[in-house]
Design a protein that fits this description.
Shape: globular
Order of helices and strands: EEHEHEHEEEEHHHEHEHEHHEEEHEHEH
Distance between the termini: 44 Å
Number of strands: 16
Helix content: 25-40%
CATH topology of the largest domain: Endonuclease, Chain A
Oligomer: single chain
Largest sheet: 8 strands, mixed
């Protein structure tokens, strides 16, 4: 298979942004980021598997620690529960600080640290929807997850260092109470600037990332969503419905294949109303969809958060909002490519699928 041409980079607010649009690119970029670290590595993943990809990342982190880089790793206790602790022994031996996010009492038992980030030297960070597992670094021909990452080089990366450290302190505290966690989430979510970190966590209302997206959608003329898990809250569903009715250009790409067929059925439950409102719907065909990408006018939202109730209200999530017309146009080109590989959902198609 031919090597795809390199992705273009865009400079926004002093930051160089590069989409990581294929599995091999994501793994190569992650290894390169770790290999290039000179002083400090902060790494956080929901799923961290004992497989070829996990072993490659482990080896890179151990090598970084051996050359004097301070390395911290947070993994989620639920997402990585199948990974034997012995798999991380070489990292412990190399001096890597490892902790598991495993709240176990009351509402905290529901919490999952669904964020994904790798931060090097406070000036380079990789975010996105992908985990450290072979299935996220393959190709559609391998039946791997279709996902997306973003490499950010510049001052925005450094702004996540304090958040990671605060989260690390909470995870390692003897009793991690919800109130300090919620304070940290609120403190590190940003409300101004062309690049804004938006963090989600346990709340009775929409998480900060979802509130920002809902605000952007209020009067939007163009909305493009790629949502691997699509069960929006009533308020976000109303935003899409109203946008369609006022003749905004609204396109939503959801999954035709998944690890959980119930999520496909739940997404399809929303189709009838959205189609009546004029929203264009598509289901991605080549492989399982895992992308979380939301483009509203000139604002791009990219990161770990799904368009479902758990990400909207419960999970710890990390999104970056980037407001820049050139970058948004580039990302819409990516969306166009995904739509070209998708099944258009027409009223006739939906009626046939729904049955009598």
């Amino acid at each position: 298979m031919e090597t795809p041409p390199p992705q273009p980079s865009f400079t926004v607010d002093g930051n160089r942004l590069t989409l990581l649009d294929t599995g091999p690119r994501r793994l190569d970029a992650l290894i390169a980021l770790i290999d290039g670290a000179a002083h400090r590595l902060r790494i956080l993943y929901y799923i961290y598997a004992d497989d070829d990809a996990g072993r490659r990342v482990n080896a890179a982190m151990a090598a970084a620690a051996d050359r004097g880089v301070a390395v911290s790793l947070i993994i989620d206790g639920f997402g990585s529960e199948d990974t034997d602790p012995a798999f991380f022994a070489p990292l412990h031996d190399a001096g890597v600080k490892i902790c598991r996010f495993s709240p176990r009492f009351g509402r905290r038992y529901l919490l999952r640290n669904h964020q994904k980030l790798a931060l090097a030297d406070e000036d380079r960070i990789i975010i996105g929807g992908f985990n450290v597992e072979d299935d996220y670094f393959g190709t559609p021909e391998d039946a791997a997850w279709q996902d997306l990452g973003l490499l950010v080089e510049g001052p925005a990366a450094g702004r996540m260092a304090g958040y990671f450290d605060a989260l690390h302190d909470w995870v390692t505290a003897e009793k991690g109470r919800l109130r300090p966690l919620n304070r940290a989430l609120a403190q590190w979510s940003e409300t101004k600037g062309a690049t804004r970190w938006l963090i989600g966590g346990p709340t009775r209302r929409l998480s900060p990332w979802a509130k920002a997206l809902r605000t952007d959608m209020a009067q939007a003329k163009r909305i493009d969503l790629i949502a691997a898990y699509f069960t929006p809250s009533p308020s976000l569903l109303r935003r899409l419905d109203k946008a369609g009715k006022r003749s905004a250009d609204v396109r939503v790409v959801t999954a035709a294949k998944s690890d959980n067929n119930a999520t496909i059925a739940a997404a399809r439950f929303t189709y009838a109303g959205l189609l009546r409102s004029g929203v264009a719907l598509f289901e991605y065909q080549p492989s399982k969809l895992h992308t979380k990408l939301y483009v509203v006018d000139d604002a791009v939202h990219i990161g770990s958060a799904n368009f479902d109730m758990r990400s909207l209200f419960i999970n710890l999530e990390l999104m970056l909002r980037i407001e820049d017309r050139a970058f948004a146009d580039h990302v819409r080109g990516y969306v166009d490519g995904e739509i070209a590989k998708s099944q258009a959902i027409t009223p006739e198609w939906y009626k046939a699928q729904a049955g009598p």
